[in-house]
Amino acid sequence: MKNFIKTIQDIWKIEELRNKLLLTIGFMVVYRFAAQIPLPGIDPAQLAELESKASGGGLLDILNMFTGGAFASASFMALGIMPYISASIVVQLMGIAIPYLQKLQKEGESGRKRINQITRWLTIAITTVQGPAYIASLPSLGIPQSAFLLGTGPMFWFSSMILLTTGTVLAMWLGEKITDKGIGNGISLLIMVGIIARFPSAFVQEFTSRVTQSNGGLIMVLIEVIIWFVVILLSILLVTAVRKIPVQYARRTVAGNIKDIAGARQYVPLKLNSSGVMPIIFAQAIMFVPAALVSASSSETVGAIAQSFVDINGLGYNLLFATLIIIFSYFYTAITIPTNKMADDLKRSGGFIPGIRPGKETADKLDAILSKITLPGSLFLALIAVFPVFVVKFGVQQSWALFYGGTSLLIMVGVAIDTIQQINSHLLNRHYDGLMKTGTKRKSVA
């Protein structure tokens, strides 16, 4: 503990790092404050039923968690950063098929800026579709007519659409500013802070249920916390696990030395879970389709089939959810890990995998290894995604069970690891030990 406090003091001594952290915290506070501001003309005192439906363990609960409760508060930030994430996914997928986007991806920084601009405009376009859908669904989600103080006429629709779009653009701007001027990935941090905002109330609710209702008592709470830490540890292992592929360099020049080192050996790290949380996000988006069919279809047969895939604790939902996660893990890994490019880069730099010829054979070897390690990675990812269902079966409250797996836990773990790595980078550059080390100042080497 003493070393940790010393490390915090070291962080505070570095002005650049201190300013980045303060800026990041400040922007996250602004985001949380904005999430509590309701749309004009809606009485926040009459949103009890909407909050109940959005925290009842269904798909709305997951959406509400990603927006930090703004969805259930009828806030102008109700759509949050989700349209931007949707736009980013669409642009990434379109980059596979559209030559113009492929060209921009190869243009370096200028191309990245252009792609970001396209993503921003697409975010606004998606908001103009999701915004009206959200406004139209408010009465069916439990908001009484009396809660609309100014009615639901054209003026309410127009002002609400303007503000929902403004809220999404504000969230997008805050995320990009955190990425550019702060610490960590801004978009991921905004999602994480929204998820963490639900954590205290979920834990208090579970604690109260166990203690006051003689439902296991403090011993059961302690067991749940221990299991939760074990799941976090396993999630960290999933995020950080890599398969090291040995690479031999016939001739390498070390910077600062005149001599060449023959036979230098390095490694190409291939992640066990190269796709991160994206398969869960893709699968989660598709799982909203059955709910839409239930509400939109007049066919009893279609409605009955779709209904079996609506209950997030049901067998049908979780089997389909896990299957989609495994499929999307392979799909997303295939489009984001360019084994051909990796093989070409190795060939140009004089590297090769021992026993494998450079070029196509190297690409095939990397692809085969990636396919093999993606299977256990995707199975583990699917297991973590559906693990809250097993926890609920043991009497855990739904709101607390969501922190035992799924997108929420993996986002928190991934963002925490990424942020710590960036902080460590700043500390090591200033001759300090990393955040997880001893916390003492290193001696400069003459």
Outline the structure in words.
- By secondary structure, this protein is mainly α.
- The protein folds into two domains: 1-197, SecY subunit domain (Preprotein translocase SecY subunit, Orthogonal Bundle), CATH 1.10.3370.10; 216-394, Preprotein translocase SecY subunit, CATH 1.10.3370.10.
- The protein has 19 helices and five strands.
- The chain has helices spanning 2-13, 15-34, 48-53, 59-66, 82-97, 99-105, 109-137, 154-181, 186-197, 199-212, 217-240, 278-286, 288-296, 300-307, 315-336, 339-348, 360-392, 398-401, 406-429, and strands spanning 242-249, 252-253, 260-261, 264-271, 351-352.
- The strands form two sheets. A three-stranded antiparallel sheet has the order 4-1-5. A two-stranded antiparallel ribbon has the order 2-3.
- The protein is globular.
- The two termini are 31 Å apart.
Mind telling me the CATH superfamily name of the largest domain? SecY subunit domain
As for the number of domains, it is 2
Strand content: under 5%
Which class of secondary structure composition applies to the elements?
mainly alpha
Low-confidence segments, ≥5 residues, pLDDT <50?
Answer: 438-446
Query: Distance between the terminal alpha carbons, to the nearest Å?
Result: 31 Å
Helix content, binned percent: 55-70%
N to C succession of SSEs: HHHHHHHHHHHEEEEHHHHHEHHH
Radius of gyration: 25 Å
Q: What is the number of helical segments per DSSP (H or I, 4+ residues)?
A: 19
Attribute tags:
single chain, about 450 residues, disordered C terminus, Preprotein translocase SecY subunit, mainly alpha, two-stranded antiparallel sheet, 19 helices, 2 domains
